[in-house]
Design brief:
Elements: H1 11-20, E1 22-25, H2 31-46, E2 55-57, H3 58-67, H4 82-85, E3 105-108, H5 115-122, H6 125-134, E4 140-149, E5 157-160, E6 168-169, E7 173-179, E8 190-193, E9 234-236, E10 244-248, E11 253-255, E12 265-273, E13 278-279
Antiparallel strand pairs: 1-10, 2-3, 3-4, 4-12, 5-11, 6-13, 7-10, 7-12, 8-9, 8-11
Bound molecules: 2-oxoglutaric acid (AKG).
Length: 319
């Protein structure tokens, strides 16, 4: 596998990331990684027994929430429980409902489930890209998320910011999204609010397919972007295999449903923490990120099994 970037990052791309909190890097990783990624996704999706706390079917959750109501007997309100979401799932009206409705699937910490994904996360061109864009001399994998949106998946991805979901404080933090195929507008391209990382705000976490938030989340309310898109400076990209899209962990982003008749949108996003990153407990981060022994202010090195060091040059080896 080619662990080198296919080209260097240009100065204007670096400046775009710093200014806008988002940059599309075209033709930067070898297509062999994308072939391997597709094979890994096929294998992961075909597995019948998946660790339950790593897999979330947002469509099943959305359908369950349609029938849930506050009149029902009280159930414990867990992260994204149907009752929490009742009546609040954001559906894309451009997507025609199908009898065989697509399922919007999320798998987190995939690097722990598949060797190809682990290699892509910590021993590929990706950590080098993250280190250069964040100006870091050491880089940790914070976590990852595989998102699969098949044709006819109506659930929108609600506008959100990643950092509130992560127990990490710091500015040298970014996410690299690696699409597994070509993406077109009908598939629900990811939309990013340009420059939204600059305010330094940490927003309330929502339930990903809904803008519902926990009432006592101390974060800032997310601006009401859906339906008012032309009032905001939004940018989208139509990435091709071999491209990556890098956003700062504070950049707000969201996406539509997949109205394509035939094309599944599949991508994995790796979240990296650089030189100034420290553990910071966030009460409303999803529980899939299992309890940690770290305390606020601890460097992430103290839990290498959760936050492995990523290789950023050919001379050093990942732990
Ligand atoms: O796939 C989506 O709809 C959302 C992607 C996303 O939130 C991310 O890559 O961080």
């Amino acid at each position: 596998m080619n662990r080198e970037m296919l080209r260097s990052i240009a100065e204007d791309e670096l400046q775009t990331f710093q200014r806008d909190g988002i940059v599309h890097l075209r033709k930067i990783i070898d297509l062999e990684w994308i072939q391997q990624l597709n094979q890994a996704i096929d294998e992961l999706i075909a597995q019948t027994e998946k660790p339950a706390d790593q897999v979330l079917d947002f469509t099943t959750l959305a359908l369950a929430s349609d029938s849930a109501s506050s009149q029902q007997p009280p159930e414990a309100l867990e992260w994204a429980s149907p009752r929490q979401l009742a009546g609040r799932v954001s559906l894309d009206t451009r997507v025609r409902p199908k009898s065989n409705r697509g399922h919007f699937i999320s798998v987190t910490s995939v690097w722990q489930l598949h060797s190809t994904i682990r290699e892509l996360a910590i021993d590929s061109p990706l950590p080098r890209i993250a280190a250069q864009l964040t100006g870091s001399s050491k880089l940790y994998l914070y976590d990852d998320q595989l998102l699969v949106k098949p044709p006819g998946t109506m659930e929108r991805t609600a506008w959100h910011q990643d950092q509130g979901y992560d127990h990490v404080a710091g500015d040298k933090v970014c996410a690299i999204r690696v699409p597994a195929g070509s993406e077109t507008p009908e598939m629900g391209l990811i939309e990013y609010l340009r420059g939204s990382h600059q305010s330094g705000k940490i927003y309330k976490v929502n339930y990903f397919v809904s803008d519902a938030t926990a009432p006592d989340d101390a974060g800032e309310p997310i601006p009401s972007i859906e339906g008012h898109e032309n009032e905001f400076d939004i940018v989208t990209f139509a990435p091709e295999p071999g491209d990556v899209v890098v956003h700062h962990l504070r950049t707000l982003h969201g996406a539509g449903g997949n109205s394509s008749e035939s094309k599944t949108r599949r991508a994995i996003t790796f979240r990296y923490a650089g030189d100034d990153a420290r553990y910071y407990f966030r009460k409303f981060a999803p529980p899939a990120q299992r309890p940690s022994n770290l305390h606020d202010g601890d460097p992430l090195d103290l839990e290498p099994a959760r936050h492995p060091v990523a290789r950023i040059n050919t001379a050093s080896q990942p732990r």
